[in-house]
Write a structure and sequence with these properties.
This protein is of the alpha/beta class. It is built from 13 helices and 22 strands. The strands form five sheets. Strands 9, 10, 11, 12, 13, 14, 15, 16 and 17 form a nine-stranded mixed sheet that branches. Strands 8-21-18-20-19-22 form a six-stranded mixed barrel. The relative contact order is 0.08.
Amino acid sequence: MRINLAKVVMNLIVTEADLRANWYKDKKTMIKIPPGSVITPPAREFLKNKGISVEIEGEGILDFTGLTYNSSIHSAKAVPAAPPVSGINAVPASRPAPGINGGSASRPAAHERPVPVSPQPHGLQEKKTEYMTHLRGNQLVLKSNPIIRFRGELDSFLSQLVETQLWFQEKGFTGMAEKLEEVVVFARNLMQAEVGNKEFVFLKVFGFDQAELREVSHNPMKYFGVNHSFVSRKHGISVAKLHVLRAKSREVELAAIAAFVSKEGKCEREDLITGCNRLSSILYILVCMEKARIRDEAAQVTVFEVNIGVSNRHVHLSREDLEALFGKGYELKKIKDLSQPGQFAAEETVTLRGPKGSIEKVRILGPVRKESQVELSVSDSIKLGIQAPVRNSGDVEGTPGIILTSQNNKLELKKGVIIAKRHLHLDPGTAKKMGLQDKDLINVSLKTKRPIRLDQVAVRVSDTYKTDLHIDLDEANAALAKNGDKAVLIWEA
């Protein structure tokens, strides 16, 4: 059987993590790869242990008897190995040799880098010993070479990373699984840059660049509302798994330093060192994200659903102001009851006039109140040119005024224009059952076709109230909500 490794091979590099992630899905016994593909040492061991055959496209089965993991070495089209070269500064056989007349051959491409290697007592060989492996092309080095160790640590990290990603996915935490995929891509790019001897290009992770990753990881309270802390069982298995990855990423970083920084402090690959350093910052950010998620989940209590009541612009009038607009002894004419007991919509309407515009046919609600009040949405206040504050109903001190006109009369209110603060009406029995009190603040999720969350919803408790969530027209339109839709109440225990 054969499988297409398009999803496994990334820039011709096959890692143990890639193989594990794909093999367990269907447990194929044959894979097919392009010529020149690089199979890392841990990946080669995985293939041998699982009895998986590897075929080079167009060239047949790959021979593992020589313990070679670079398929280009066994390719039928591969060029003969160069003469043996020894010494700490040995270079790959594929590089140009010095010129015949004492000059030097053309320089390596700009993206190629000098490769620090361990002493090679036997130079380059066509057949390698068990304690040697290929670094690049036909270049043999000891398996203890720091660069080989770095590759192994990075491959091991990738394997644990994919395993943890699958765990989150199986538990239904798809958001974290998706974030871990970004880390997988980041780590694979590190491997690709090192094996390919190319510059590591730092791409954004979670939308953050290098500087932002450092800033966010150093200030978890600012960005996630959680403190710095050591790993602890109280945080749960999901946080512990992410801490394990972070600890492993530090081992990768130390391996990179051992491979590319000399005893004198000269760094051959600052791009890789920086990438590995940010890798631990990336994992710590995920730790903080998961701790914040667990905290928020634990803070929620039993879910309560309530009806949504959408409140359009309207006017409440005092007895004095009602008579000023409609005449002595005038009584409002009810056309329908509202959700709250005793309150109703009246037939009567008025026109609102502000500095910049007017709004006609604004409904009056009854019964009469102690003080007059005009409730607007933000959109209404902009149209009228009035800077109305967000207030609880009845709190009208220091608020702007407005002009009201009826069919025959005109009234100028000196105060009373507000944007009503979103609020929840509760009777005392329901409030007690929920553990809420008058003037508490809670959060509310609107369960609509366009769901949104509203914070700082004021709780108002009275024996004259019926349970109902009141929001204005702007808020309702943002969520595509209408009267009778449902809202879920959320608050901290």
